[in-house]
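user: At home tonight, take the chain set out below, taking as long as you need, and be ready to discuss the fold:
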Amino acid sequence: SFPIKSYLFRLNSSKFPQLRLLREKESEMLKDISNSFQKVLQKKSITSNGLKKSGRMEDIEKSQLDGRFVVSIPRNIASDVGVIRGVSERGDTCYVEPSELIERGNALSEIREEMKSLENEITQNLIRLIIRGAPFIQSGMDALARVDTIFAKAAFGCTMNGNIPHVGNDGKIEVNDFIHPVLAGRSIGIHNVVPIDIVISGNTGSRSLIISGPNGGGKTVALKSFGLSAIMSKIGIPIPVAKTSSVSYNTEARIDFFADVLVEVGDGQNVDGGESTLMARLNACSDVIQKISETRPDECLQTSKDIVLKQHSLILLDELGSGTDPTAGAALGRSILEKMLKFETSRIIATTHSPQLKTLSFDDDRFNCASVLLEAGTDSQKFKLPAFKLVYGSIGDSYALGAASRCEPPLPDDVITRAGDLLSGGEDGDGDYLRAISASLEREKQAAEVATKAAEAYRDDSLRCRNAMVSLAKAYEQHFSRLERRLEVLYDELQNDESSDAFEVVGESLKEIRLVKKKVKSQEELLSERGLKRVPESYEFTDGETVIIIAEGEWEGESATVSLDSLIAKDEVSVTPSFGWGVSMAGEQSDVLNQSGANAMILKRREVAIWDYPSDTSWDSNYEEKIPVRSVPDSRQKLYDVFSSLKTSEPKKLQVSPPNKPERDTFTSARQRKAASAASKRDKKKTSKKRNKR
C-alpha cells in the first residue's frame, strides 16, 4: 500500500492586500495572547494553596481548543479560573480559558472568521476564472504533455544510445546491433546485452523470416525485437543500438512504416472457453488472416504532409507448427504462411522447431532463414550454452537436451542420459547427420567472424599508419625545403663575401644537414614501410591492377586502378584514381566523381608504386634493379657537392700561435673553433691595454 500524502494550500498574501492585513492582525493578536498567558499563570487564583500543596503545578498545560487558548487544570478549581471550554475523557481535568483572555480570544475569533470569509470569496472567484479558461488550460496541459513526452523520448535515446532510423515505404527493417531495451534496462546494463541484427527485406526480397535454433537461445526475444522496433519507430522513440558496434561499416538504421503489428505469442489456451493450445493458436492465425485480408493492396494512408503510406502489416508468429502432431503441424504452418504471403503488404517473422518449416527457404525465395547460435565450448563440455546471436542464412537444431540440462532445479542426470540414448537410438541417423552439418556450419561462421574482425582491425591499423607516414613525410619535406633555401642563401654569401669565415659557416651547415639526413628517410624506404615498391623496368601491368600514386600533386598517396592502353608510351601507364579501399570511380559513382575532375590520367611508371608481395627470390637476394632516389632536385644537389668538396684543413692565420700560448689542438667542431677565437680576441685586448698603460 502506498502512503497517503495530504497537502495544504494557502492563498498568497502578496497577491491579495486585504488578506495580508487580516493575517498581520492575527499574528499580532497571537503574540499579545501568548505574552498575557504567562502572566495569567502566575495569578493566585490558579496557583492556590491547595494546588501547591497537592504538588500538581506540572499539570497546568497551555493548549488550543477550537481556536481558544486554554489551560488544563483540575476540575475543583476550574470555575475559579475562567470559562470551561472542554472536559477530558476521565472528567477530572477541565480545559479552561482564563477570564483575562476571553476578550482577546473573541477578537481573534472575529479576525479568523473574517479571514475565512475573505478566502472563500477569493477562492470562488478563482474557480470561476478556471472554469472560464478551462479550454485554454486543457490545451496547455495537452501541449505540456506532448513536450514532456518528447523530452522523455530524447532522454531514453540518450540513455540507451538511441538511433533515429530512416523511415521508408517498402515494409523493410534493417537495424545493425539492436539492443532490447527491456534487457538493457535491467541491472546487467546495456554493455552486457548481446546485440542482434534485425533484417527483413522489402518488396523485392524475402518477405518472411523463419528463425530456428536451440531452446532458450533467444528466438522469441529476436521475434519480439522486430515488433518492438517497428512500434518504437512508429511512435518516434529512438532505436537502442550497441555503443561499440563490431561492424565498422554500420549503415543507417531503417525501419519502414507498418500500419499494423499483429502478434501471436504464448499459450492462449482457455479452459472456460474450451480452447486447447492448438485451437487458440489457430484462432489467432485466423484473426490475423482476416485482418490483413480486409486491407486492399492499393489502399494507402494520407498524412498531414501529403505523404502517402502503404498499409504494411508486420506479423509475428511464435512456435509455429507446435501443439499437435509434428507432420500435421508443419503442414498447417506452411499453408498459413503461404496464405499470408499472398498479400503483398504482409511481412512475417516466425519461430519454429519443425524441420519442414526450417527448410522452406531452400524451396521458396519468399522465405529466408536465420538461427540463434551456441557458444564455442570446449570438448570437455557436455552441453554448450546459448550465445544469443542471430545469424542469417542458416538453420539450427533445437538442442532440447542442452536446454534440459539448464533446468532450475536441475533434472537428474540419469533422466538426461536416458533421453540422449532414446534420441540416438530412435532415429535412422538423418538427425545426427543434420546436427553434424549444422555444428560444422556454426564453427565455420564463428571462424569467419573472427577472421573478419581481424581483417577489419588490420585495415584500420594500416589506414592509420598510412596517414601518419604521409603526414610525417610532408612535414620532413617542408623542413627540407626550408633548409635548401637557407643553404642557397649561404652559398651566395660564401661566393660574394670574402671576409666571412667560410669554414665555420660551412661546418655549421654540414652538421645540420647530417642531422636532417638521419631523420629524413628516402622515398624508397617510405614505400617499403608501407608495403610498396617502385615499378621495375621489366614489370608488366595487368588490367584492373591497383597501384599507389606517388607523384607530387593532389592525388599523391591515393590508390588507382590500371587501364591498359596500347596508344601510350612504354614508360607511361594509364590509371584511374579511386577513393578509400576499393571504391573505384567506375560504376554508380563515376558520374559524381567525373564532375570533380578526377578522370583517367597518364603517369610515368616512376610516378606510381606497386604492392611489395614477398616472393621466393626476394628472401635471398635483391634481384630488382635499384633506381637511385633523390630527396632533393638535381639542380640543388650540386650545392651539397660543393660543400662536400671543401677541404677541412686549418687556414694559415690559425697556424700562428699567439705569444706565450701553446700550439692549438685540432678542433672537432665549429663551436669549439668559435670559442677559441673569442678567447684569443679577449687575450689580445688585455695585452693591448697593458701596453697602453706602460
The mean pLDDT is 75. Residues 442 and 461 are 29 Å apart (CA to CA). Residues 430-496 form the longest helix (67 residues).
